[in-house]
Amino acid sequence: MKCLIISDSHGSEKELEEVIARHQEEVDAVIHCGDSELQQSSPLLQNTYVVEGNCDIPGEFPEDRAEDINGVRVYVTHGHLYNVKMTHVPLSYRAEEKAARLACFGHSHIAAAFEENGVIFVNPGSLLLPRIRPEQTYAMAAFDKNGGAEIQFFDRSSGEEINELRKTFAAY
């Protein structure tokens, strides 16, 4: 299973369209972790698993969702309801409740990947307003048939991988 993970595009339609077009043929799913600031009817969000962020129109998207994508249970939320800028503990509990192997979130605009209690957490950063690092980022998560995973992060403008952010996780 391979998925494209995007968050915090904040109305940047051109940039969002470029990233999706760049990878849509190689992924099984496109995930947007909120703060798209687009309407549900936007053509850019068709065939995309989207959740509501704190800057989105209330009620336009679900607050969170759990999906089975080619054998991998994926939990998606923006993160603001779980206080992810301060701690990952509430998000970790929720991902475990949803029996997720992959938990995708945004809100902090900080690109990161880590594993806790068998759940791989990915924050793709922001397509528009990055924090900590200068690059506007997004992520790709690829799972092998044994459950191992590789998370890669990419510079939005160039499409090139940011090698120092790459993480590999063994099967759980």
TrEMBL record:
Keywords, ordered alphabetically: Metal-binding
Q: What InterPro entries does this protein map onto?
A: Calcineurin-like_PHP_lpxH, Metallo-depent_PP-like, Phosphodiesterase_MJ0936/Vps29
UniProt enzyme class: hydrolase
Name the Enzyme Commission number(s) assigned to this protein: 3.1.4.-
Question: What family is it from?
Answer: Belongs to the metallophosphoesterase superfamily. YfcE family.
Q: Which residues form the Calcineurin-like phosphoesterase domain?
A: 1-145
DNA-binding as a keyword of this entry, yes or no, is no
Cofactor(s) needed, names only, are:
a divalent metal cation
Q: Does the keyword Metal-binding apply?
A: yes
What GO annotations for molecular function exist for this entry? hydrolase activity; metal ion binding
Q: What is this protein called?
A: Phosphoesterase
